[in-house]
Amino acid sequence: MALLSGLFGLVLFAIGFAVAAFVQTGRRGERGRWLAVVGLVAAAGWIAVIAVVVVATSLLTADRDESGHVTGKDKLLPGMLRVGDCFTGLEGVSSRSPITALPCSRPHEGEAVAELRLPRDPWPGDREVLERASDACDYKVARLMKSRYAEHLEQYAIPPNKLGWDAGDRRTLCILRYIGPVKLTVPLAETMDPNKRLWRELHRGDCLAAWSEGSIVQSVLPCDKAHWSQVYAVYKLPSVSYPGEKTLQRKVKAGCNARWWDGFDVREYPQLVRFAYPVEYEWEAGVRTAVCLGEADKKPLKKSLLRH
Q1: What parts of the sequence cross the membrane (predicted)?
Q2: Alpha-carbon span 147 to 191, nearest angstrom
Q3: Hey, where are the domains in the chain?
């Protein structure tokens, strides 16, 4: 009986029957003790299996309130985070090591900030799917680069693996990890700098302290303060397939040059022209904005130079 119970996973019954069997065989000298031993071994195996299942299941869920916010401190696989969850314990780019999910009001090291679905294409390979996911996350998390803590934020994308992809899963999670000197205690959305804008959010007349090369975020300030650049035109590009970096650059340069004298007075104007346009991942996300700026060369500007 102990053997049968152990084999069929009736753990508590197996242990009880095994103990009874040991007692009985000890008193009566009956054979069958080895069956009781096998039953206990089987029961131990089931206990191990159950323990593994319980631990694995616990890494897939967290305690949440009615609004879906994490309420405690729960170990989770990074891919099981939901948008808005904060966490600690992320180890590099690994999506297999558990992290600790916790409320954003508690000291934390990062946040799940966006979720997206990749196109339903055939499996492109591990490297390609990670590149696609990273590009898509670049666009999704761009708004949070206006945070006061942006210089200490690292972006990670967690795309589906091949097994999930073949099963139809296209979910990608975008997370930001904070590596600054002290931990965060609020959601990133509450740390926005009102003087920072994405380049594609700039408006005609905006003045900039200086153009931040290679950054999607620029700092604006009042035009009566010393500044180096001013936006003189913003316009939309045609909605066509991505034309390539060189072609797009040439077209935007021509468009900004054509708008120069519509922007500035012929008696007073900046010395240089600068322009901004979408890179490929932004273009694929639907961005068609072109921004034209006049830029001082030797000394900063102290007022707006635009025609009004």
Answers
A1: 6-23, 35-60
A2: 5
A3: 2-58, 74-191, 196-295
Tokens at residue 14, please? 């197996």
Residue 203: the pLDDT is: 97
Q: Both tokens of residue 221? A: 């300030």
Stretches in the chain below the pLDDT threshold 50: 2-15, 17-19, 22, 27-30, 35-43, 46-60
The number of beta carbons lying within 10 Å of the beta carbon of residue 303 is 12
Distances from the Cα of 281 to the Cαs of 97, 134, 273, in angstroms? 29, 10, 25
> Are the C-beta atoms of 306 and 230 separated by less than 8 Å?
yes
Tell me the residue type at 267. Answer: R
Could you tell me which of 279, 300, 297, 275 has the C-alpha nearest to residue 288?
279
3-class SS at 207? Answer: strand
Please indicate, yes or no, whether the overall pTM of this predicted structure exceeds 0.70.
yes
Q: What angle do CA 207, 213, 216 make, to 5 degrees?
A: 75
Closest C-alpha among 190, 194, 197 to residue 211:
197
Residue 21 in tokens: 């069997």
Burial class (CB in 10 A: 0-12, 13-18, 19+), 119: exposed
Q: Which residues pair with 208 in a beta bridge?
A: 220, 229
In this structure, what token pair is assigned to residue 148? 């006061």
pLDDT for 37:
46
Q: Are 135 and 124 in contact (CB under 8 A)?
A: no
Query: How many whole angstroms separate alpha carbon 287 and alpha carbon 305?
Result: 28
pLDDT digits (tens, 9 = 90+) for 130-162: 999 999 999 999 999 999 999 999 999 999 999
Within a 10 A sphere around the Cβ of 96, how many other Cβ atoms? 8
